[in-house]
Specification:
homoheptamer, alpha+beta, Alpha-Beta Plaits, five-stranded antiparallel sheet, three-stranded antiparallel sheet, transmembrane helix (chains A, B, C, D, E, F, G), cell membrane (chains A, B, C, D, E, F, G), transmembrane (chains A, B, C, D, E, F, G)
Chain lengths: 276, 276, 276, 276, 276, 276, 276
């Protein structure tokens, strides 16, 4: 029954095995060289750029990059080795065919999360503690993960936003903010007088409030409302202080207008009476 | 008729069978090694991370991961074995071609559900009993499944949300919540006086209500309405108590304003009468 | 002209035929084994899970699964057999190429319908007679098919909803429902008194109506309207009875408020008259 | 110059031709068998199901199915025959490559139309003369084609809707329809009295109008409007008669309320006059 | 240096050339047969169906179809001929790879335009001079091209609509149109009297205006407005005359109501005066 | 060490080189023939059609077409030559695999821009100086490029619109434009009288303004407003003059109505006073 | 054990190695030639076009192009070399299969960013300091990167916009801007008089304000409001000065109208009083 063993072409088999062994050794050597070069390149990359970012962020990015690189290399290495022994990897992939397609789509979302997360970290678009608007959610950033970013809404809700959902990032914690107030005065009031009064108030408030960086200045007549002439005031404040400054300004202007007899008018209507 | 049997090249056939047998044995060995290593890796992974999560959740995740791993491995194993016997698996896949494509798309939705469900469980974005907003549905989570999440709306409706529909998760049961009240007072009232009265009420309410964690504080003039000056009050409460605290505050502030003769004004209009 | 017949290498042909025959037999055996195992597995699966669902639904699901399994297996079997005779199936598929692509897309919708329908049945998201909201359509479920779900709208319209359109299912027939009433009282009325009166009414109604399961309770001041103070009442009712209970409560509260001289106010406006 | 003809291996050529001929005959036989079986299966399918649908619709569906089947089979047959003569069909397809891709996408829309049209006919979702809402178009169905459905809008416009645009079908011609009327009565009127009067009217109208199938019944207080208490009346009518019945009911109820001195109130407003 | 020429196996070369020549001749013959049959089939198709459409349209469609058919055939013919000489066409296609993909997508839009345009012409959904609504554009059709349809908006704007943008076609020039008028009468007026007056007007107008095909009829009480009882009038007019008829009817009804003392009421409001 | 050189089968090598050389020459010849024919065809095409378009536009289109043709041919030529030397081009493409896929998608947008731009130029949908609405942007066209179209908004903003964003083109500079005015007159005015007065004004304006091409005509009662009867006036003007004509007409009609004592009414309201 | 070494066909091996070496040399030479030619072409391209753009922008674009070119070439070079040694690159790619697919999609977004960014820079659509509207974000451009564009909103928020999100670019810093003011005057005022007064104001303002480039001119009656006749004023200003000019004009016109007794009217209403 085992006669067939003798008939095997041992010579050819030996040559085959020899060739494969040589190739295998070559591959392993190449694998370690590539791995070593890649690792050093990644580390150098992050150390060179390390000055610009916090050490924590830098470390996170470096370890993530190393992980991705290592897994990817290993994956390819196994693929090549397997193909040497004629366990054709395409069969393996094809065997995973339909399933793989489906998983691929699932994984796509994951990869999309990670890629976006990577660039958000790299470009420092978001820091923990920033007040941001992403994917329609307002709030303070609690955590920037590779897959998910956690944002604490102002009503206390915790939003889990998958990074792939983050396209435009609006960061409200980068530099001075604007304070803007629109005040409607009566059509009967003298505009010049009102502007003078309001500018005086603005100057006083600015003198007493160190959160104000620029202005506030009265710009002039912004619009004609149906019952009021709208005057706009604009200033710059320290980051995060804009709402407080706006509240202070509103109160101060309201009181000054009252003292100067300038009216903030209610809606007006002209009634023409007919008897039916 | 059966003469052809003699003409078969039995030697080559034997060699073929021998080769295949050897390969088969190799594959089976590899299969069991990979399976064993994979299983241990998964179990260790969940035990290492097990501290941070409830045992139930951990168990669920571990068994799900094991299942997926086992089925996937078996699928590939069968594919490789079949390809040994030249029942070409690609034929099989191709044979399933059009049908497969269609099924693949169907399965894609399923996989998408499972992948998302897996991460929702892993990252603990949702727990049973949480008050959440997902996919435009508000309510209390009744069940987080691998494919579907059940949410009980506040009107009693049961929402079945496929996990793939869950992108942003807004979880209202994670930490203290904000109580916010906007009160409009008359343009004729003294703003300082009104703020003082309201702050007193807030302090009294806070003293008597243990659900209040911070404040509530009167922030100041939030806006100029068409007939009222809007004053904003903000505080922090225990999770889930924000609506009750808001109701208590509203009633208390209303009564205090009444006692102090501060008006919550109706809409105003200035009528200028002309006779037609 | 037929001399060429003699030149055929009959020996090789015989061997070829022999090989093919052996393979064919092997395939047929495998086919029947797989079919038998698969069938038993499916039946066992449904009998094990059968306790949780109605027998009718279980039967439906089982026969559907068996059908799909059988057709799929037969499809692959034919593919393999054809490939044995070198009627290359890929040619067949490729021959169907462009057409196939198009059909594939068409079939995709169908498969998507069936897959979704399968899970809706399996997870019992919808039963005939349920009041549901799916794909923007409100109504009573008349039929849940594999491809289409029929929903009878409340105005009598029959909606045919392809299952693939069903993502979120909102089922209003699962458990008790909420009755919610917002009543606006005058700014001049005593809130405490109004709440007391309304709570009395609620208790009386609850005592006389067995459809009410919990409450109804007066929660307190929900909002300040432009002309009224809004008081909210919430209760739980038997499923489907919420609208009736709400109507009963509305009438009872209205009458009680009238008797106690508490006003449900019309919109208010303050008119300041100027002569032009 | 033609010496090469002699050098041809006529024997092999003959064998080749013989083989091809045999295959060809085999294919043709298979073709006719498959065609015949398929045709019979289709015809039987439609005759078995024929009871449930009109003969015209059944005939239409049967001939469509036969056409599709025949063209498809012929397409594959030609593909296989061509491949026998080594005019490789994949070259043909590949040659059509870019063009084919583009056409495929175009054809996809067509196939999508036909598939959807087929199911609309099969499931009888739409009949000529039905009042339906599909793809945002309201109207009476004039024609259901395989590619396009024609709907006559109520303003006389003819809408050509490609079947692929038809997802949800809302058919308003399947069963009894609801008549719903909301009547607002004054806050000063006695609700019980109003309901009694309205119910009497409903009963009278129902007695005289054979288009009314159920009710109409006065349900009770549906809502508190800003100036009126809304009472809802609901009934069932024969299909298509709901608008007429609603008009009759509206007129009758209006007249009855007038006779009983129950007011349908105009918007109310409380004016508080201040002199400026 | 040219010794190698002698070593060529001239015999085999000759055979090869001979075979190729034979194949080439066969292909050319097939090409012309297919072309001839195809052309005749197309022409016959259009002549058979030619009765139903204008000769111009028929000619256009026939020449378009012939063009597409010829180009397509030539494309495949060149592909097959090239593959005979082993200038592998797939290389050519692959060489065009990335570029081809991109072009394919571009061409896809073009093909989509042409396919849709073809069916719009074939099914006569649009004729030059029709008043249509397609892709959100209202207007008169100026030209239906294979790629673009030109629509002249009523304000004089010329809209170029790519055919692929045309999904639903709403053609307002196919059959009689509806004239619909809603008239609000006072709550104090007698509904029966008003309906009688309006019906008389309708009958008079219909008698004098030959553009009116059906009605117009007074349907009854369509709705209760906040200040008026809405009466609906509906009629049918010749295509394109609906707006003129509506204007005539509006004027006539207004004048008749004035003469009969029936009021078209202004918005009403009940004012309850309080002194502050 | 170099013994192996002798063992080479020089004869076969020579034959191979000879064959390749022959093929190369053949390809080059074909290349130049195709290029020459293609160029001439393109030039002739543009000269034949050149009458209908400006020389500038024709030149632009011709040079673009020549460029695309030349690059495409060169691309294929290089591909075929490379494949002759067994530097398999598919390897090259595959080597570019993932990168290529990504670039392909990027290029797709570019190609889409160019294709759309080409047709916009060819069909003269847009000319520099036209007033158009494309992709939601209103304005005057400043430049139509192959990739981007520049539109100067009326507020001075310069919009860069990628051509792929241009689907529907609404060109407001093609032919006469409509002037449309809706005037509301009092319910108490005589409609016939008002129409007569307005028509007189229209005729006078038309007589004095050469920008008016047709009408303007008073159409009749367009609608019943809540306080006015709306009369519509329509005319045709030279392109671009519609806004000026509308302003002239509005002023003239207003003045004529004033002179004739016809009222353009303010909003009316009927007040029913109740004492609370 | 090592006997097999002797049995190797050293001659063939040598020939193989020789061939590979020759090919390798050829490839390397080609690589350097292509690289050198490509580099020069790119540099020449940017120097030729360099006049039109700032040197900084030109340098940036040149280095980006060189980088992309170099990486791409190196990628293909490695692929070809690897394929020489039969480490089949498709295996490598296939080995990366599923992962690669996912990464490809991720990279696609990146490439899309870079391609769009490249053209934005090349076509100078955006410069740092421009006031633009892109992707729904208004603001001043702070940085145009290859992947992300930073825009500083007017409220101080920093928007990070991925370039792929930038489709239409609306640049408000390219040329003169329009100042537009709509003023409503009373129906009782003389339109001619009002226009004369307003034109005088415009001329005076234009004389004193060097930011005004054209006009401003009073166009005439733009619309009939419910209570006012709307007069439109339009002018051209230096870029960025439009808002200031509008404010100046508004104030000046308001004051002039006041002096001339022309009324900017409040909303009007005709009240018809009925006693209930």
């Amino acid at each position: 029954m085992l006669d067939w063993i003798e008939t095997i072409d041992w010579t050819n088999l030996m040559i085959d095995i020899g060739k494969v062994t040589l190739k295998l050794i070559a591959i392993i050597i190449v694998y370690f060289i590539v791995k070593s070069i890649g690792k050093r390149a990644i580390i150098r990359l992050f150390n060179r750029k390390g000055n610009e970012m916090s050490t924590g962020r830098s470390k996170t990015l470096q370890s993530i990059t190393l992980n991705i690189f290592t897994y990817f290399l290993m994956f390819i290495f196994i693929g090549i080795v397997l193909s040497l022994f004629n366990f054709d990897i395409t069969t393996l992939i094809a065997g995973a065919g339909i399933l793989g397609l489906a998983i691929g789509f699932g994984a796509q979302g994951l990869v999309s999360d990670v890629v976006t997360g990577f660039f958000i970290l790299l470009e420092q678009q978001i820091d923990v503690g920033d007040y941001v608007t992403v994917a329609g959610k307002d709030g303070i950033v609690e955590e920037v993960g590779l897959r998910t970013t956690k944002i604490r809404g102002f009503d206390g809700t915790l939003h889990y936003v998958p990074n792939r959902e983050i396209t435009n990032v609006s960061n409200h914690s980068r530099g001075n903010m604007r304070a803007l107030i629109d005040i409607g005065i009566s059509y009967n009031d003298d505009i010049d007088h009102a502007i003078k009064v309001m500018q005086q108030v603005c100057d006083e408030v600015a003198a007493n409030d160190e959160n104000i960086m620029e202005g506030p200045d009265v710009l002039g007549v912004q619009a004609f409302g149906s019952s009021d002439v709208v005057i706009r005031v604009i200033g710059k404040t320290k980051n995060g202080e804009q709402f407080g400054v706006e509240r202070t300004l509103r109160k101060a202007i309201k009181e000054a207008l009252d003292q100067n007899g300038i009216e903030i008018p209610y809606p007006h209507q002209v009634n023409i009476n007919k008897e039916s």
